[in-house]
Design goal:
- The complex is a heterodimer of chains A (about 160) and B (about 290).
- With about 160 residues, chain A is an all-alpha fold.
- In chain A, helix 8 packs across helix 10.
- In chain A, about 35% of the residues are buried.
- With about 290 residues, chain B is of the alpha/beta class.
- In chain B, about 45% of the residues lie in helices and about 10% in strands.
- Chain B contains 14 helices and eight strands.
- Chain B has a four-stranded parallel beta sheet, with helices on both faces. In chain B, strands 6-5-7-8 form a four-stranded parallel beta sheet, sandwiched between helices.
- The relative contact order of chain B is 0.15.
- Classes of the chains: A mainly alpha (about 160), B alpha/beta (about 290).
- Chains A and B meet through helix 6, helix 7, helix 8, helix 9 and helix 10 of A and helix 1, helix 2, helix 3, helix 4 and helix 11 of B.
């Protein structure tokens, strides 16, 4: 295992705090209440306190390349608990947007986004004749129409065409 | 009569159509008119939301504008959709520039977002448009002697960004409805914890672990069933029980309108009861009164 010595630095903090919603992270004292409250953290490798600590010491690359900010599912329970007003889910969202700028995107997100933009919705491939029959049986419309022209417009407006 | 357009979202109409049908049947019975919103698009929750905020606003903005075009407020029954549409509305209402950007995209279809439309989740409708006493008087077949666990769903219940009307308090509406319908709501540990579903794409093992933990705690509290108000939560809490890690006894997971429907005299078929992955018969057997 390669071990990186983390040198305390504030440039990463400064970078994050200039982005919207990132500013409150400076209040974090790495007390760990977030991890104690987190439904995912219990007995798993996910540890919000640890990500916050890495951010605080300026470990920019390890944080941007980590899967952990993507594991946060924005349930916001840690924010109810935090005594210092840190909006962790927002901080992780900012971290993710920074990672995206450097083209670090988990494959599952890329795949979902492709489906949404190409088809107009997420479930086109999952929608079978069997389910259409179930819908009819329930008196619901089996024609689930979605506007893919619009989602494709949005993609070409905000994303580069190759991905 | 209050009217809404129903934004179905992606997951509900495909994975849990019974929830959609039961919502319409129950609300109509209670005097609220529901029509589907067609030709929509994905709201972009979680995925597009993480990738690009402007694109996320453009997706949600179109859904808001479609509803305005129909002159009705939006009902969303998925926690993620309701949460993300409320979030988009809040951002677009505050940011003039972002609103102008979205409207220029919408202009091609002759649509406009003017901040008029309201977004409500099913639980908001029960809290704001209906009263518990009117609900009580509509109940013809109350439940008796059944202990049920309410699961709220994070994006419905958490008061972050002032999007939800809980004024900082924990929600109690599902528990209240269970009680009004004659059931007994149970307290359990980790009641407001996540079901794990949003993690499925990133790490399905981790997602199961979170869901199983929730089921265990509900079982320990002696509940005989779970009542949900989100398609994603409902599917997740059902499927984690099918993996064999929790033993053979399976706890039924039922959506709120499916729970309420039979007590209002609505037929099981209309509520898609037979489509539930874990049979809700244990819950339905506790209904009283003459049933068709």
């Amino acid at each position: 295992m390669v071990r990186t010595r983390l040198i305390p630095s504030s440039s990463f903090i400064q970078e994050l705090t200039t982005l919207a919603k990132g500013r409150l992270l400076e209040n974090c004292v790495a007390c760990g209440m977030c991890t104690a409250r987190c439904a995912v953290a219990a007995g798993t490798h996910y540890n919000p306190r640890q990500i916050m600590q890495k951010i605080l010491v300026g470990a920019r690359e390890p944080v941007l390349h980590s899967e952990q900010p993507w594991v946060c599912k924005t349930c916001h329970q840690c924010e109810d608990t935090c005594q210092y007003g840190v909006r962790l889910a927002d901080v992780f969202r900012v971290v993710r947007s920074l990672a995206i700028r450097e083209n670090i995107i988990p494959a599952s997100f890329q795949k979902a986004a492709d489906a949404i933009f190409s088809d107009g919705w997420l479930m086109k491939d999952a929608y079978s004749d069997f389910i259409a029959d179930e819908r009819k049986e329930l008196g619901l419309s089996s024609r689930l129409s979605h506007n893919k022209r619009y989602t494709r417009d949005v993609r070409s407006m905000y994303f580069e065409e190759d991905g | 009569m209050k009217e809404y357009v129903l934004f179905r979202g992606c997951v509900t109409p495909v994975r849990l159509p019974a929830y959609e049908a039961a919502t319409i049947a129950v609300l109509e019975k209670l005097g609220i008119n529901i029509s589907p919103l067609n030709n929509t698009n994905c709201c972009g929750a979680q995925y597009i939301e993480s990738l690009n905020e402007n694109a996320f606003l453009a997706l949600g903005g179109r859904i808001l504008a479609l509803a305005e075009n129909e002159g009705k407020d939006i009902l969303a029954i998925c926690g993620a959709c309701a949460g993300s549409l409320k979030h988009v509305k809040m951002l677009l209402d505050r940011r003039k520039r972002a609103r102008a950007d979205v409207n220029s995209l919408l202009d091609r279809d002759g649509l406009q977002y003017t901040r008029k439309v309201e977004v409500k989740h099913l639980l908001d409708v029960f809290e704001q448009d209906l009263t518990l006493s009117s609900l009580e008087s509509a109940i013809t077949n109350p439940y008796t002697n059944i202990r049920l666990a309410a699961h709220y769903g994070c994006h419905v219940s958490r008061p972050f960004d002032d999007m939800n009307s809980t004024s900082g308090k924990v929600p109690t509406i599902i528990d209240s409805i269970i009680r009004v319908a004659g059931g007994w709501p149970v307290k359990y540990e980790g009641k407001f914890r996540c079901c794990g579903a949003p993690l499925l794409a990133m790490d399905d093992k981790l997602a199961s672990k979170v869901g199983i933990e929730k089921i265990r705690s509900i079982k320990e509290a002696g509940a005989e069933g779970i009542v949900t108000a989100c398609a994603y939560c409902n599917i997740q809490l059902s499927q984690v029980q099918l993996g064999g890690r929790l033993g053979k006894s399976r706890m039924p997971v039922i959506t709120l309108p499916q729970f309420l429907g039979p007590s209002l005299g609505i037929l099981d078929e209309e509520l898609g009861m037979h489509m539930n992955r874990i049979s809700p018969s244990r819950i339905l057997e506790s209904l009283t009164g003459v049933r068709y």
